[in-house]
Each structure stands twice: as structure tokens, then as C-alpha cells.
TrEMBL record:
Signal peptide: none annotated. Pfam families: DDE_3, HTH_32. This is IS630 family transposase. InterPro entries: Homeodomain-like_sf, Tc1-like_DDE_dom, Transpos_IS630-like, WH-like_DNA-bd_sf. It comes from Nannocystis punicea. SUPFAM superfamilies: Homeodomain-like.
Amino acid sequence: MLARSGRAEARLVLRARLVLLAAEGHSNQEIARRLGCHVDTVRVWRGRFARDGRVVTLEDRPRSGRPPRVSPATRCKLIKLACDKPARHGQQTRSTWTYATLARRLLHETGVGLSVSEVGRILRNEDFRPHKMRLWLHSPDPDFCRKVQRICDLYHHPPDGAHVLCVDEKTGMQALGRRFPSKLPAPGRAGRFEFEYVRRGTWSLFAAFDVRTGEVLGECKPQRRAEDLLDFMESLARKYPTGQLYVVWDNLNIHYEGADQRWARFNRRHGDRFHFVYTPIHASWVNQIEIWFSLLQRRVLRYADFPCAGALPRAVMSFIRRWNSDEAHPFNWTFRGHFVHTQRHHAA
């Protein structure tokens, strides 16, 4: 079977055919001529199989290979060094290691000299890349669990007849004008946009996302001020003239009471229908409006070419109208944490 196999390694097939020809009584020279190999090859494998008689004999024997140049102690020292902060080892001006700086530091501390490529091989073998960093945001809020639990409950089980609105501001939206026109993509070619641009001004978007319907209400303003936010909240009160409104937003200063008690006065004007729910510190990602802001960024703002400052708010408001008429839907929002595991499915 091995001699006729089309999937086995060619060297194993050759050795199997060699053994079969030897069993038929052919000489070493005849076998070498038929198989196109050296007579010494025939002699070695014929003799090995004759002594053992098993197919496994045709496999290559394990080889010791070259003795390791780098001792286990040196490898461990290198990995330990890479896990530590460079500042603790005299690298005060660096925040991360490179292979070159690790090699130099290892030589300084142990006297063992390794090349940069050898350092890289050792660390890659451990799936360790000390020069790579990822962004991570930790919430130091001591009430993180309680606050997130309340927001999850509002998302998944809102009070009867109440509206849950995710409110936030997208600030610093730049109306960039490209120096040269962008090129559309084509088969086999990605689209391209000009690197150089002209700044034509910035705008801030005040927006609210209805968790139940997916509808978005937004207003563009030149600045983000408490007065602008108050005007936007008045428009929300007109949009939802009845029922309780739960507003989920972050810990920005204008979201809290000012010296004039703006939100207490605002709430009294509207029959105390508004309930303000704050996300944990450094956890604005709990706010679903952030998901919609990412859609706006990718679809409208990222590669846009605005001929004037006023073109940006027109494009944003046009996207909001199109979203509400054609695409508005609740998000399939899921949070997996050590205290809550909930999921709500919505129809698109």
C-alpha cells in the first residue's frame, strides 16, 4: 500500500518500493538502476529493513540536532526582562522595549550577547511582542456594577409607558476640504482620498437615540455649551410630550446641575418627567448613542470632502433623516460582565 500511495512522502514511497524489489530477489545495482537512486541508498535501507522487518523502519530516525546556543536560564531572564518596565532597568526615556534595547540590556545584566533576530525568535516563540500596545480603558468607579446594572435594566426592561433615550454630544467634527478630489474604488483597486486637507471649521452634534425604536433626534451647533444642551433637551421634551423619559448620559460637567440649578428647573417645567441616569466614570461605551456615532463617523465624516463649513451640518442632518426613514432600528445590545449577562434581540 505504501509503495502505491499517492499521498505519502516521496522518500517513504521510494523506500517501500526498494524493499519490495529486494524481496523479489533483485540485486542492489538492479534496484538502484530501476529506482534512479544511489546503490548505497539501496544497501542502507535494504539492510535496515532486513534487521527489523517493520514498516516503521522506513521512517527517518530522530536526530539530536544542533545543541541549543541559548540556555533555558537566559531565555527566562530575557522574558522576565521584557515583562518589566524599561525604567527599572536604566531606560528612563523609554516606555516600551524593542528587540534591540532588550538585547543590549540582557548583555549588560548577564553578559550573554544575543542578536536582535535571536531575541525576536525567542519572544515570538512565546507569543510575546513587548513593543505592541493596545488601548484599554478602565473604569475606577466604585459603583460601576450598580450603575451598569441599572442601565442594562432600562435597556432590556424599560418601565411601562416610559421612553429611554441615550443622549450625548459628538464634538469637534471637522469640516475638512480635500486638496484634490477623492478617487472612487474600482475592481482590483481601493478608493483613495487626498492626504492634504483644509480645515473649514468644526461643529458639535447634540443627539439622542431612542432605545425602543432606534430613532435619532439631533441638532448641530457651532459649540458645545450648557445653553445649547438645554435647547436640545427642550426639543426632546417637545418630541415626547407625555410619559416618563429616562435620559442615559455620561459625566460631563454640563450634564450635572449648574449654579443656576438648570436641570432641576428644566424638570419642573416639564412636570418632573425626566430621570437622569449617569454612566459609570470612564464607561461612556455603555451609552448606545456611541454606537450610532460610530456609524455616522464611518459613513459620513471619515472620507468626506466638505467645500465649506456649512456643508458638514447639512450632511449630518441629511444622514439623520435618512436613518430615521429607512434604517432606524434598535441595536442588538449585549453586555457580558461578571455580574450580568443579558441579551435582547430586535427585528431590524
